[in-house]
Give the backbone structure.
Amino acid sequence: MNQRNMTIGLVAGLLAGCSLEPAYHRPALPVPVAWPSGAAYGPPTDSTITDWQQAFPTAKLQHVIALALVQSRDLRVAIAQIEADRAQYRIQRAALLPTIDASVSASTGRSYTGLPAGQGGAYANSTTYSASVGTTAYELDLFGRVHSLTKAALETYLATVEAKASTGSV
């Protein structure tokens, strides 16, 4: 019997180390490694503009662009998408831990005993207490499904954060 329990424990341990998540290999970039060269391309230029305000020196134009950035519906949608992805990641991360419920209750009642008042009273008081603790739902992550879903939700959230950062509004 002890040998059987050890075998079951060993098999369960080996299965717990397995993951069905495919290995990620970064695809090759569809861009050339170096800038094209030759007479048709001319000399390389130095683009040192790091701020959009340097490219548009007029104060009126800067005001219009800043107003467009502040009131852009696309940016609001991007921010809302970030919040939605953050919430989805938190929900998925919560699935890694078991859900524990606890409740406590008390009730007091008064019941008629049927005895006359002179022989112990006509009513009796009773109080009942109860407490319970239990887990409602938990999935053993033997093959890494829950962990993979959590990782995917995190990557989606980080991608939306980077998409917002690429708009220049961070």
Summary: Helices lie at 2-16, 52-55, 59-70, 73-94, 145-166. The first strand starts at residue 100 and ends at 112. The mean pLDDT is 80. The two ends are 63 Å apart (CA to CA).
